[in-house]
Amino acid sequence: MVDHGSRRAEANAVLDRVAERVRRRRPGWIVHAAHMELAPPTLAEAFDACVAEGATEIVVHPYFLAPGRHSTDDIPRLVREASRRYPDVRVRISEPLGLHDRVVDAVLDRVERA
Question: d(Cα 32, Cα 50) in Å, to the nearest integer?
């Protein structure tokens, strides 16, 4: 999972907590959080960690709401760079969160609790 990254540690910690929840729901998966910039770990470092844990296939999830420049240009570029060192690892990139019904559910939940 990769987000933009922030200078604020508490913002970066959100992705760590999301990654932990994904791990709990999918115990057989290798899950690491990464940031495009401003904070470690980088996408390349998370890629290395996945391979070190035995990953033979990596799905990179852009933790973004919309398919903007980061998820359509920057992340694919960073994935290509990181994956060059691992030609035997299959790599895919998922869509960002976008127009998923559960995102709408989350918005409604937040608004109703405000």
Answer: 7
Share of the chain above pLDDT 70, in %: 100
Nearest C-alpha neighbor of 85 from the set 41, 61, 52: 52
C-alpha 20/C-alpha 47 separation (Å) is 17
Q: Mention every residue, 6+ apart, whose C-beta is less than 8 A from residue 13.
A: none
E strands present in the chain: 2-3, 34-35, 57-60, 90-93
| pTM across the whole model | 0.91
DSSP conformation letters of 55-77: -SEEEE-B--SS--HIIIIIHHH
> Tokens 């990464």, residue?
34
